[in-house]
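Exercise: predict the fold of this chain.
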Amino acid sequence: MRKDEIKRYVLEYLVDESILPSTVLETAITVPTANTFELKRLEMEMNKEIRLKEMEREREREEREREEREERERKEREMQMEEKAREHEFRLKQLKLGVIKGSDPKIGLDTRGFDVSKHVKFVPKFQEDNVEKFFNHFEKLGEQLKWPKDEWSILIQSNLTGKAQEVYSALSIEDSMDYDKVKKAKLQAYELVPEAYRQKFRKYRKADTQTYVEFAYQKERHFDRWCASKKGLHI
C-alpha cells in the first residue's frame, strides 16, 4: 500500500473519531504525494489537532471530577448538618424531660462533658416586658460560668415563654442551633431593633409626673439603646 493511501486511511479514522475536522480530508486530496514538505506540514497540523483534542478531553474530565467532588462535599456537609440538627432536637427533648423529672444525671450531657441539665437552673427567668435585660443577664452568666457558646441556644430555649417560644419554634432547625440568630429573631419579634429605638427616642416626651432630670435620663437611655443596637453592643 502506498504511503499516501496509508495517510488517507489514518486521516479518515481520525475524522470518524472526531479528533480531526473533515476539512483535513479535503486538504489531503490536494497534497501531492511527492511533496515531502507538504506532507510534513500536514502531519504537524494533524498532531496539533490531536493534542488540542486531548487537552479538551482532559479539561472536560477534570471539570467532571471537580463537579463530582463538590457534589460529594455538599452532600457530606448536609449530612453533618442534619446529624447535628437531630442531636440538637434530641438533647433539647432530653433536657425538657430532665427538667420535669429531675432523675437522670446523663440527660443533657454533651460529648465534652458539659451537663446542660445542671446549668439550666441558672438561666434567668424570661421576661417579655424586658427582653434586653434577659439577654444581657443570660450572656453575662454564660461568660461567668463558662458555658460553651454552642450550648447557649439549648439553655435559653429551656426558659422561653409566650411570643419568644413561638419565634423559636418558627426558626429552622439550623437557625435554632445558632444563639446569635435566635437572639436576633427574638429582638426583631419584640421590635427591639435600631429603627424601633430611633422611634422611641424621637417620640419620647416628658410626663407630667417626671422631673426634668428623670426625663433627661430616660431620653439619654433611649438614645444609648438606639446607638448600641446599631453597633450590636450590649446595653
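Check your answer against the key: The two ends are 94 Å apart (CA to CA).
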